[in-house]
Amino acid sequence: MVMKQRVSIIIVSYNTKDLLADCLESIKSQYDAAEIETIVVDNASSDGSADHVSRAYPDVKLIRNSENKGFAAANNQGVEVSGGEYVLFLNSDTLLKDGAIEGMLDVFDKHPETGLCGPKLLNADGSVQRNVYHFTTFRAILARYTVLKYFGLFKKARDYYRMRNFDYGKFAKVDRVMGAAMMTTRKILDEVGGMDEGMFFYFEDVDLCKQINMAGYEICFTPESQIVHLGGASSASLGNSKTLMMFFESMFYYFRKNRGKAETFCFGAFFKPAALLYILLEFVAGLFKAVFLFFVDRKKAKVKFKTSRQAGLFLAKHTLKFIVC
């Protein structure tokens, strides 16, 4: 059994009421409140999430924010009121499998150099969900978010970043793991200063792994801990064009912090026009494909139109903000 209050689980919630309830049930079905402390930080949800937690889960510590403070700030709020020696950051769209917490604790017990541990993430159908990556690079971003994608330039850099050949059946020391589920210690969080609240949404998990690694600790992955991650629930509720802008803002913040302002400025001078051209082409190509497919496959046409629409919304609403970010 897990030692009393050895672990505090922190879940940030934003308009994921039903998924959050399922997540809390998966915790409740395995662990007593005296063993595992669970903290929910609600970022001003409008779907009744906080009220439901208050009524149905009285043992869960609940923080109600009057505004959406972002993922990093909300997690830091949870850490402040937590009491566990270990802290498990957990997305609201996850489900703990049997032994998930013990599997990560075992890594810390056996490998004292561990600073953060990530589990094996599974999709809803039980297939492996990739959650282990190298640290983000300029080249990998260029290969994904600019017109260079069409020409296959820097594809090797992108494949290296995504670690396509990683063996998810073995324990490994890695650069970083996805923030949907990751465990660290209170001592280490105090040492590195928690999550950087300069990143509202995206890259806060990348940066946390980076800071922990720079502090001399190892980032580990273990297949002995398994968690189902449904993925993208909170970001979907924000809207694709808005979340893309959040991604870019956090990306530049992360690069300025970890690669320096001069390098990041030079990167941005090339990246920004190349990215805007890519988004423009996605808008035009998606629109033409949607019109053509309308007479062949209306379901596919709808998908293409949605892609085109989000690209158009980004250009209309966020171009200036993107240029100066």
What's the SSE blueprint?
Layout: E1 7-13, H1 17-28, E2 36-43, H2 49-56, E3 61-65, H3 71-81, E4 86-91, E5 94-96, H4 100-110, E6 114-122, E7 128-129, E8 132-133, H5 138-145, H6 148-151, H7 155-162, E9 172-174, E10 176-177, E11 181-185, H8 186-192, H9 204-214, E12 218-229, H10 233-238, H11 240-259, H12 261-293, H13 298-324
Parallel strand pairs: 1-2, 1-4, 2-3, 6-12
Antiparallel strand pairs: 4-11, 5-12, 6-7, 6-11, 8-10, 9-12
Protein model, in words:
By secondary structure, the protein is α/β, with parallel strands linked by helices. The chain folds into two domains: 7-130 and 166-233, Spore Coat Polysaccharide Biosynthesis Protein SpsA, Chain A, CATH 3.90.550; 260-324. The protein is 51% helix and 20% strand. It contains 13 helices and twelve strands. Strand 2 (36-43), helix 2 and strand 3 (61-65) form a beta-alpha-beta unit. The relative contact order is 0.13.
- In whole angstroms, the N-to-C terminal distance is 48 Å
How does the overall form come out from the CA principal axes?
Answer: globular
Q: Residue-averaged pLDDT, rounded?
A: 94
User: Which superfamily, in CATH terms, is the homologous superfamily of the largest domain?
Assistant: Spore Coat Polysaccharide Biosynthesis Protein SpsA, Chain A
Q: State the low-pLDDT regions, or none.
A: 234-238
CATH architecture of the largest domain: Alpha-Beta Complex
The total count of strands amounts to 12
How much is the radius of gyration in Å? 20 Å
Order of helices and strands: EHEHEHEEHEEEHHHEEEHHEHHHH
